[in-house]
Design a protein that fits this description.
single chain; 344 residues; Aspartate Aminotransferase, domain 1; binds pyridoxal-5'-phosphate
């Protein structure tokens, strides 16, 4: 059966061009800094985000963790969104492995962190309190609905943080979705920030990997942290080769995923019992089911699976559907039809 897999954009497989590039990639020992393909990916990534240097890491989680461990010392505090991936879905790594204290600020509905909330969260110079070191911003913001932050907001956020001696890290797992949706280059979003992690393995279809970017000095320190975390890879060029194809060929087409997410949302919004969280800005459709629906989300998952459609519940009444390279127009129509058949 051809599955329609809407659980996440992480389910994408490498494209034929990626597999060819992987097979042909020149490699070396990347812990010695001698893998030419990894080096090329890192340079390309840094150029894309308008920063000096990049570091190839196995996952977005390791990229964020390495960034936090590089910026913050033990007992220091990172301000994070209360719904952020770093706080909720990275197994508490910053606290478990770095002794970094998290301070949570509730996101605005658009995924931003309000400056007055940040101001209130920054610690005074008082021996009773941890030292505030960093603000983490997520864009696109996953749990807030795949929403993006604007260049203007990010510039203001960076100026705000720097004026207070803080750094800004962006969890930009889907940075390029944010850029494409706004019709801007990624660097327009990230250049004012101190560091950013983005994923190659989601909508960009590479099989493995993320890149952490920042200043040359920051990346030199992050390289040692990556080694501590066990993320120093050897002939990683076979993986980086797919990442280069991702950055060269797969960014612009993300716009198609956004159009299809919108079509899916519009189709679902036409059904009674469906409450959209909002019109999707990028490739995620979040919605809640009315209490009058008697099927549980688990039952709905199972019935959809019988129809060849994989979906993932995100709460007792809530679903998140994600469009990506393997979701075409027919998949969208079949999914809306299946929900109609199930719920009506
Ligand atoms: C996927 C994701 C990450 C990183 O996840 P990995 O699976 O470790 O690559 C980080 N932040 C957000 C918002 C994500 O969606």
């Amino acid at each position: 059966m051809e599955w329609i897999d809407l659980r996440s954009d992480t389910v994408t497989h490498p494209t034929p061009e990626m597999r060819a590039a992987m097979a042909a990639a020149p490699v070396g020992d990347d812990v010695f800094g001698e893998d030419p393909t990894v080096n090329r990916l890192q340079e390309l990534a840094a150029e894309k985000v308008g920063m000096e240097a990049g570091l190839f890491v196995p996952s977005g989680t390791m990229g964020n963790l390495a960034a936090l461990l590089t910026h913050c010392g033990r007992g220091e505090e990172a301000i994070v969104g209360a719904q952020s991936h770093i706080l909720l879905y990275e197994a508490g790594g910053m606290s478990a492995l770095g002794g970094i204290h998290s301070r949570q600020v509730r996101e605005q509905p658009d995924g931003s962190l309000a400056l007055q909330d940040l101001e209130a969260a920054i610690r005074p110079d008082d021996v009773h309190e941890p030292v505030t070191r960093l603000i983490a911003i997520e864009s696109t913001h996953n749990r807030c609905g795949g929403v993006f932050q604007s260049p203007a907001y990010l510039r203001v956020l960076a100026d705000f943080a720097h004026a207070r001696g803080l750094v800004v890290h962006m969890d930009g797992a889907r940075l390029f979705n944010a850029a494409v949706a706004q019709g801007v280059e990624a660097r327009t979003l990230t250049a004012p920030l101190d560091s950013v992690t983005f994923c190659l393995s989601k909508g960009l279809c590479a099989p493995v990997g993320s890149v952490l970017c920042g200043s040359r000095e920051f990346i030199a320190r992050a390289r040692r942290i990556r080694k501590q975390l066990g993320g120093g890879m050897r002939q990683a060029g076979v993986l980086a080769a797919a990442g280069i194809v991702a950055l060269e060929q797969m960014i612009d087409r993300l716009a198609e995923d956004h159009i299809r997410a919108r079509k899916l949302a519009e189709g679902l919004a036409g059904l009674p019992f469906v409450r959209l969280q909002g019109m999707p800005q990028t490739n995620m459709v979040y919605f809640d089911l009315d209490e009058s629906v008697t099927l549980t989300v688990e039952q709905i998952e199972a019935r959809m699976q019988e129809r060849g459609i994989l979906i993932h519940a995100d709460g007792r009444r809530r679903f998140r559907l994600v469009t990506h390279y393997w979701i075409d127009d027919t998949s969208i129509e079949r999914t809306v039809e299946a929900f109609r058949a199930l719920l009506l």
